[in-house]
Specification:
Helix content is 71%, strand content 2%. The chain contains nine helices and two strands, in the order H-H-H-H-E-H-H-H-E-H-H. It has helices at 7-27, 31-54, 60-88, 105-119, 132-149, 154-160, 163-178, 197-213, 217-237, and strands spanning 127-128, 182-183. Helix 2 (31-54) packs antiparallel against helix 5.
C-alpha cells in the first residue's frame, strides 16, 4: 500500500473538516473562530497540492476532492456569514424572512468558479478572477471587523449593516470570482527585486496595513490585491 498517495487527499479532507467546524461557529455567532478555522482550512488547501507535487501523486481524484472541500470552506462558509450579516443588519430591503438568503449568491459564485477552474488550463501560474479562498477571507473578515469596531466606529456600523451595501458586496463577490481579470501570482520564483516587484510591493504594503489597521486591513488587502492586478494589466497592455 502506497501511503504517500493518500497524504495529499488526507490534507484536503482536513481542509473540509475545518470548513465544517467553521459552519458550526457561524451558527453560534462566533465569527472570529469561524475566520480562524477558514484560514486554517486554506492553509491545508495550499499544502495538499504541494505534497501532491512533491510525492508525484497528483491525479483527478485529488482535483475533485480539492474543489469539493473548497466548496465548503470557501463557498458555503462565506455565504452563510453573509446570510448572517443580512439577518443581523437593517431591513432596508424589506422582507427579513427572505432577504438574508441573498447572502448565498456568494456560494453560487464560488461553486461556478470552482467548477470552471477545474477545466480552465490557463490558471497554472496565476489566476483569472479572484480565488475562492481570498474571497472567503474577504467576506468573513467583514463580519469580524463589524463585531470588533461597530461600537467605536459609526461608519463601520452603517456600512456593514446596510442591506443595500451587503447586496452590492455579494454581487461584486460573485462577479469578481468569475471575471476575466488576470491576477498576478503571489509566488516568488527568484530572490531578487527584478521580476518580483509586484509581489514585494504587495507584501510590504500588506504588512504595513496589518500593523497599522489590524483586522480592518484584511478586507482592504484583498481589495488592494485586485486593484494592483488591474493596474498591472493596464500597464502590460500599453
Amino acid at each position: 500500500m502506497n501511503i504517500k498517495k493518500h497524504i495529499p487527499n488526507l490534507i484536503t479532507l482536513i481542509n473540509l473538516f475545518c470548513g465544517c467546524v467553521a459552519i458550526v461557529f457561524v451558527s453560534k455567532g462566533d465569527f472570529l473562530m469561524a475566520f480562524y478555522m477558514v484560514c486554517l482550512g486554506i492553509f491545508f488547501d495550499f499544502f495538499d497540492g504541494f505534497f501532491a507535487r512533491l510525492f508525484k501523486v497528483a491525479g483527478p481524484l485529488g482535483l475533485q476532492l480539492d474543489s469539493l472541500a473548497d466548496m465548503v470552506t470557501s463557498g458555503v462558509v462565506p455565504g452563510y456569514v453573509m446570510y448572517s450579516m443580512f439577518a443581523r443588519g437593517g431591513d432596508q430591503l424589506g422582507n427579513q424572512a427572505i432577504v438574508p438568503f441573498l447572502g448565498f449568491i456568494i456560494t453560487l459564485g464560488a461553486c461556478y468558479r470552482l467548477a470552471n477552474f477545474n477545466i480552465d488550463t490557463r490558471q497554472t501560474d496565476s489566476f483569472i478572477g479572484l480565488p475562492t479562498p481570498a474571497n472567503a477571507i474577504f467576506i468573513i473578515s467583514l463580519q469580524v471587523v463589524l463585531d470588533m469596531y461597530a461600537e467605536s466606529s459609526l461608519l463601520v456600523l452603517e456600512l456593514l449593516t446596510n442591506q443595500w451595501i451587503l447586496l452590492v458586496i455579494s454581487l461584486c463577490s460573485a462577479y469578481i470570482m468569475n471575471a476575466e481579470i488576470p491576477l498576478f501570482s503571489l509566488k516568488v520564483k527568484k530572490i531578487s527585486f527584478k521580476g518580483n516587484t509586484l509581489q514585494i510591493v504587495f507584501l510590504i504594503v500588506s504588512v504595513l496595513m496589518i500593523v497599522l489597521l489590524q483586522y480592518i486591513a484584511i478586507p482592504l488587502i484583498i481589495v488592494f490585491y485586485v486593484l494592483l492586478s488591474v493596474i498591472n494589466n493596464l500597464f502590460l497592455k500599453k
